[in-house]
Amino acid sequence: MAEAEEQETGSLEESTDESEEEESEEEPKLKYERLSNGVTEILQKDAASCMTVHDKFLALGTHYGKVYLLDVQGNITQKFDVSPVKINQISLDESGEHMGVCSEDGKVQVFGLYSGEEFHETFDCPIKIIAVHPHFVRSSCKQFVTGGKKLLLFERSWMNRWKSVVLHEGEGNIRSVKWRGHLIAWANNMGVKIFDIISKQRITNVPRDDISLRPDMYPCSLCWKDNVTLIIGWGTSVKICSVKERHASEMRDLPSRYVEIVSQFETEFYVSGLAPLCDQLVVLSYVKEISEKTEREYCARPRLDIIQPLSETCEEISSDALTVRGFQENECRDYHLEYSEGESLFYIVSPRDVVVAKERDQDDHIDWLLEKKKYEEALMAAEISQKNIKRHKILDIGLAYINHLVERGDYDIAARKCQKILGKNAALWEYEVYKFKEIGQLKAISPYLPRGDPVLKPLIYEMILHEFLESDYEGFATLIREWPGDLYNNSVIVQAVRDHLKKDSQNKTLLKTLAELYTYDKNYGNALEIYLTLRHKDVFQLIHKHNLFSSIKDKIVLLMDFDSEKAVDMLLDNEDKISIKKVVEELEDRPELQHVYLHKLFKRDHHKGQRYHEKQISLYAEYDRPNLLPFLRDSTHCPLEKALEICQQRNFVEETVYLLSRMGNSRSALKMIMEELHDVDKAIEFAKEQDDGELWEDLILYSIDKPPFITGLLNNIGTHVDPILLIHRIKEGMEIPNLRDSLVKILQDYNLQILLREGCKKILVADSLSLLKKMHRTQMKGVLVDDAAKPFSVVVFHCRHMFHKECLPMPSMNSAAQFCNICSAKNRGPGSAILEMKK
């Protein structure tokens, strides 16, 4: 349970050792302060006996018979000398304009605070309680009740006279009363009653549970939560009663209302006061404990608990022990709990002290979090409720959080939080950077410095760069890459890097960083030179981005040595800036690079580099023979004689064969295949490509005395040359490998040819017959003749042209067929078939 220690500016009484409790990490639900000013002055000479609370002011009664009206700060606004003895109770109507007071000497006063109306009466016994009608200000509600040995209802008649009615008596003193709406609840020695002022009926009796407790020492506490819910606290018992309407069918002689106990539970201590808080209860408890040293019972500090009522039990939400003045001498009856419904203020009244409890707001919550050093939670709470907090600023909490993290040594977290907390406040950023410098943690804050909005002074960024340059080259290089070049004075940093390179001239990290700084400074020449020296991959990006082609005309060899593929692609993509001629000249001393460039050029366009095709023959022969033959095939500009000479010198058979064939010397080419390559399949393939009978004859003559070659010819010659020509030339007795298989293959190929021919013949015959039948059907169709004026003979041709028979020329002696003159003239035929119609 949380311990709520309330202290004034001056000295406070210390609680006994037995009642001390260690402070918990759980946040309290309420905050406390003493009601001071005039109250302090009053209680120094007198003792509080009762108090009532209105939204506008407070009314405090004392043991010396005084009634004080106080503002919410405890300042005295009015004073009434009511009696020389103890004031037992004060009652106010809802308007706060009328007050009722009763005292131990039997005096009762009801008077208007702002009007002259007044009621005075002195009874022959002490009057313990008084309650004025909540709407006493109305003329129809001039009623109040008093209680001593009996409960009296006073009501003003139409002649301004007061008449009284006894509502209850005979069960001991009336010690507590609460009036809400049309219901009056009171407690005597036997229990709690509720009276309906409209129906003039008592509707319930709730008996007390623990009759062993003296009712004068442990009085009943009553509290209306609303117009129909009464909360009863007596001893250690709490009951929540609900007033309900009785159904008409159940009424008979019973009251129209009845009471149902909706919740009932026991508490750990004695109840001294009750108050509602939303759906929870605030309970003021009187505590007695036994000393471990003396084993005697003593009065401990009272407790103010917030509990959640359940049907048969309750759940404790919070519990605070209150250090009030003189709690060691107080009894249960000396404590009272009053509350203000409008503001959720709770007043704990004791003879020598008045403590105000109120719900903690967000400012209080943040105070508690800061006190517990829970800065992150405090910052989050402030951000969520920034419209509601009044005493705190998000920035102040954030700065305190950063300081806390720095003190704890969490420099990286502190630096990261700066981004969110400092935001766009450049002055605060600079202040924090200098603070991090003082503790030697500039590296921690460097990743989080603002780089755009806001921009800090260049000196800040330079200070951090120098810090990294002295101890961490890689970190320095990272910052140079990540930070825009306009954040700092570039020339200052360049000079600092140069100074360090004097000590370590081959440091690649520094050289690369210097190149980047040159790039920021638009000194692209120096940057390019460093990149080429380092063979850095960004060199091509730098050239493209800043159009540095004029600067690389004399550095082509370096670029090719670094990455020939990228270099060639770049050069070919920018021929308008660096000509082919210039590149070839620069690479004259590096023929292997020259070949790479010209080969890529030839792949892109066979004609662009035609002037270098003769040179390329030697380059291909020297560095890239696999691509020589494709080049010779695709190029139409290379000199064949030169190519043949080079290929013959290097004994490139395949290339020589191709060149001989291309130059028309097929027989020499075939001879080279047979004599140099000894590849009959290639020779046969070559003969097939040339499709020359003389070549086949030469191939047969060359192969006739070579059995393996004969086998190859027998397997492949069948479709181009009659195999009989070869078979007749084979010498008798010559052993030919796989002759049988070869002959079988020849016969199979022949049979296949026969089958193909027969199949083709069948298809042709079927197609011819189908077309003939179609033509016959077409020619057998009738033709419509429109002219029917008189009988005559008409000749209709299949082209649908019609002629009078007399108009047609007579058929010649050589051919009896007649033809359409029109179609014959146009060569469109056929018009040979004649259909005669006589009509």
List the helices and strands and how they pair.
Layout: E1 3-4, E2 30-34, H1 38-45, E3 48-53, E4 58-62, E5 66-70, E6 76-81, E7 87-92, E8 98-103, E9 107-112, E10 118-122, E11 129-132, E12 143-147, E13 150-156, E14 162-169, E15 176-180, E16 183-187, E17 191-196, E18 201-207, E19 221-226, E20 229-234, E21 237-245, H2 248-251, E22 257-266, E23 270-277, E24 280-286, E25 288-290, E26 297-299, E27 303-309, E28 314-322, E29 336-340, E30 345-350, E31 353-359, H3 362-371, H4 375-384, H5 394-408, H6 411-422, H7 426-438, H8 442-445, H9 458-471, H10 473-482, H11 490-503, H12 508-520, H13 524-534, H14 539-546, H15 556-562, H16 564-573, H17 580-586, H18 591-604, H19 613-623, H20 628-634, H21 640-649, H22 653-662, H23 666-677, H24 680-690, H25 693-703, H26 707-716, H27 723-729, H28 739-780, E32 793-797, E33 802-804, H29 821-826, E34 834-838
Parallel strand pairs: 1-28
Antiparallel strand pairs: 2-31, 3-4, 4-5, 5-6, 7-8, 8-9, 9-10, 11-12, 12-13, 13-14, 15-16, 16-17, 17-18, 19-20, 20-21, 21-22, 23-24, 24-27, 25-26, 27-28, 29-30, 30-31, 32-33, 32-34
Helix pairs in contact: 3-4, 4-5, 5-6, 9-10, 9-11, 10-12, 11-12, 12-13, 13-14, 15-16, 16-18, 18-19, 19-21, 20-22, 21-22, 22-23, 23-24, 23-25, 26-28
